[in-house]
Design goal:
The protein contains 15 helices and 24 strands. It has 3 domains: 2-42, no CATH class; 59-67 and 430-551, Immunoglobulin-like (Sandwich); 72-429, Glycosidases (TIM Barrel), CATH 3.20.20. It has helices at 2-21, 23-28, 30-42, 83-87, 115-122, 161-174, 198-210, 226-229, 238-255, 277-280, 282-290, 324-344, 370-385, 413-424, 547-551; strands at residues 59-64, 70-71, 77-82, 90-91, 105-106, 127-132, 139-142, 157-160, 176-182, 216-219, 261-268, 296-301, 349-355, 390-393, 428-435, 441-447, 454-460, 467-471, 477-484, 494-495, 498-499, 518-519, 525-527, 531-538. By secondary structure, it is α/β, with parallel strands linked by helices.
Amino acid sequence: MRSVFFLSLGPVLAVFALWHLRPAWVVDHLDVTDAWVGAMLSSPRPAPDETPAAGAEPVQLSLDLQRPLGQLDARFLSVAIDTSQLVGGHFWSASGRVEVGRGSERVPALDLPQPRLLELARALGPAYLRVGGTEADHVYYAVGAARGSERPPAYELELDEPMWDALVRFSRAADFGLVFTLNAGPSSRDEGGAWRSDNAEQLFDYVASRGDAVALWELGNEVNGHWFIHGLSHQPSGPQYASDLWTLRRALERHFNGAQMAGPAEVFFPRLGEPLFDWLGFLPRALEGGGAALDVVTWHYYPQQSRRCPVATRRAEPGHLLSPAELDEGERWAGQLRQLRDRFAPRAKLWLGETGHAQCGGEPGLSDRYASSLWWLDQLGQAARGGQAVVVRQTLVGSDYGLLDAATLEPRPDYYASLLWRRAMGARVLDVHRAGHNPYLRAYAHCSPDGASVSLLVLNEHPSEAARVELDRAPAQAARYDLSAPSLESRTLWVNGAPLRSGALDSSGGHGLELEPLDAGVGPWLLPAASAAFFELKGLDAPACQAASAAALSTVQLTSPAP
């Protein structure tokens, strides 16, 4: 097993070393480095990407309507803004050039008060807003007692009071619960590698004095990957991070009543999983010693890497993320997380705390197109069914994976897909059983947000073949919203045969879209290639969607602590 580990890890470390020694060579030879990594990963850790047959017969779905499979946080679909956008740090280049771990372009601080941004954000609420990312581990908090003091040289960036105040106002106005990632990078550690809470506590003092609501404090960003971002000498061990978690827990208790905390924002790579897992064993050791301090276990997963990433275990390309094997991989890693959470932190919720179509800012020309929406809706369905209490989309605005275009604030297909999910899929998750072979046909069922009907999301991920689906019990009435586009590369999402534009947003100030459904009949239903459909099923006997059934399940919604 150890030899298998080094075979799979070797190419990643080789590319990492080459990047630091000869970055120009890596930029010019990404095809070579991708081949190194891909060839070695395909042998010791097979993750087959072959294309199975779609199947010609209809897939029959049976919905378990007696008891919910699970109960999600009311803010299940949540969003992020990168710390770099808040403080004016380094973010991903518009050119798409190769970068390592963090962007190379210095960006101005995001103009949070702009009315159009707030209007579009409010339509996604209620949600959590995570402020995090690589730059979170480089920030000095120049607030309260630290206001006006000279920034220590170890810190690269600074968060001042006007920035924090603008963030709190924006979160409150958009109905976003604030999730804030604290600096756990080298600048926040002492000579022995232990996390120091002094600057964080200056921020806590300021927040408590103002009565600002923070739903969740997270310690560090992708702490198991600090070796890649900050260097091998700056990688905390699992036991050290566990000790850091208890340091944070004590600090929070000194300033707040009932403060919630999260970590370690564990990063998983496609096909590889947790980098250096066999060597560091970071997550099991961190949770073994610190899991009892956590309210939420957070992890990050991107299903592929964009051209900006110097190391790729699956390079983003057209046509990727339509195969069942690639779509199912996120649940593979989620299963590992659940086992560790259940063993070491059983009271903690599990959050997919950062995800997007492609790592390192998204892939230009792919991550902002319709193809991403087919992946995104399937990701939400899998996460909900798999017990993820919250999914945080990176990002609300910016780079190629943002829901909104940074320059124009024009909504991208994934923004509208998110609104449609929120409109249809409530917090109670239902189990779906299927008969018939078609792995491209994906189906997820929830109670509607008001519990009055059953919502069914069906996706046909096959790029060229239509699929048919039917229910074992026909509803009395069914409404349908078809999602499609002229091509996978389309910048526009079509609903019921017409392109969605900004004018479709609910003009009354409510959440969602003004859309007229199609009459779906009772089925069977045809889904064209590379399409999806939301069905509103009425008249089904669904005890799982009644209030009494919902009350029997424990809610996973966080509450903001009292200062």
